[in-house]
Amino acid sequence: RGAIAEFYDFDHHQVFEGVTTYSCVLLLTKKSQSSFLYTMATQADVIPGEPAFGKINLADLNEDRWRMLTDDARPIIDAIERAGRPLGEIARLSVGLATLADACYVLSGERRGDGYLAEAGGAAFSIEPGITRPILKASLLKSEPEIVTNRRRILFPYERIDGKHRIIPEGELRDAFPNAHAYLRAIRATLAKRDRGKPNSVAWYAFGRSQGLDNNFGTKLLTSGMNLAANFVYCDDPDTTFYSGYCVRTDAFDLRALQRILNSPLMDFYMRHTSRSYQNGYKSYAKSFIKTFGVPELSGEEVAYVREAEVGELVAFLLERYGLACSDHPALDRFLRDSPKLG
Question: Which residues contact 192 (CB under 8 A, 6 or more apart)?
Answer without folding.
Answer: 204
